[in-house]
Design goal:
The chain has about 270 residues and is of the alpha/beta class. It is about 35% helix and about 20% strand. This is ABC transporter domain-containing protein.
């Protein structure tokens, strides 16, 4: 019988053609479809102003834009950390509001700016999600997940309080991968890390996409980071996606505020 991690790797590597219909001739399959997504603040100010975009399967989508433009709110709508209106966010063609929220969050995992680990060892943290479902990961399965997140298996017994921020972020990634997600939401996951830790994490993301077909949606304050790893860029300004661009052709942006943001951030 294959291990849980072997099943996870197979799940990541094999495209379910029956469910997803393969890749259509005119472009990649769509993982998320967002239509007229609106969010208002308590004071009635629009945070998201009718966002309508498609997120392709197996790609890294970068989201950039000025502070306060709704980037994190958009990201959190994709796994119902913020509850979107019915009929606005669809995962594999299904309205996410119709899905069990815990199952949705296992499918659509999330990494935050600062990792929040539980008390206990690294292994305790990695085992947490499957354990909630009555699944006990073996030592070997934990080692494989740590390796997948670019951590040496020797970290297995380390306490969560002993780790650097970069190491803790990779443990948080291993913990998320233990749930066998189909999508990773990344909310500035390297902004608190040093350059070497940042590169390590970026390398893991690219490997997950290239070797496993993982879909990722990443908010970043770093345009250079988005250019290094993203396949497509959404430019969000005042709650609206005003440009969708190739990351290496950001100079082609035409929206005035988008152009100004890119000039000031370069």
């Amino acid at each position: 019988m294959p291990s849980l991690q072997e099943e996870a790797e197979e799940h990541l590597l094999v495209v379910d053609a029956e469910e997803d219909g393969g890749e259509p001739e005119n472009g990649p399959a769509i993982k998320f479809k967002i239509r007229d997504l609106i969010k208002e603040s308590d004071s009635g100010q629009l945070i998201l102003n009718g966002v309508s975009v498609d997120i392709p399967k197996g790609k890294i989508v970068g989201i950039i834009g000025p502070s306060g433009s709704g980037k994190s709110t958009f990201l959190r709508s994709l796994n119902r950390l913020w509850e979107p209106p019915v009929g606005t966010v669809f995962l594999d063609g299904r309205d996410i509001c119709d899905l069990d929220v815990l199952k949705l969050r296992r499918k659509v995992g999330m990494l935050f700016q600062l990792p929040a680990l539980f008390e206990g060892t690294v292994a305790d943290n990695v085992r947490y999600g499957p354990q909630l479902r009555g699944i006990k990961l073996s030592d070997e399965q934990v080692y494989k997940l740590l390796t997948l997140a670019d951590l040496d298996p020797s970290f297995y017994h380390k306490g969560s309080s002993e780790l650097s921020v970069g190491q803790a972020q990779r443990v948080a990634l291993a913990r998320t991968l233990a749930n066998q997600p189909e999508v990773l939401l990344l909310d500035e996951p390297t902004s608190a890390l040093d350059p070497i830790s940042t590169q390590n994490i970026e390398d893991v993301f690219v490997k997950l996409k290239n070797n496993g077909g993982m879909t990722m949606v990443m908010v970043s304050h770093s345009i250079k980071q988005i250019q290094r790893i993203a396949d497509i860029v959404f430019l969000l300004v005042d709650g609206s996606v005003v440009e969708i661009l190739n990351p290496h052709k950001l100079e082609e942006a035409k929206h005035p505020m988008a152009k100004r943001f890119l000039q000031l951030s370069s």
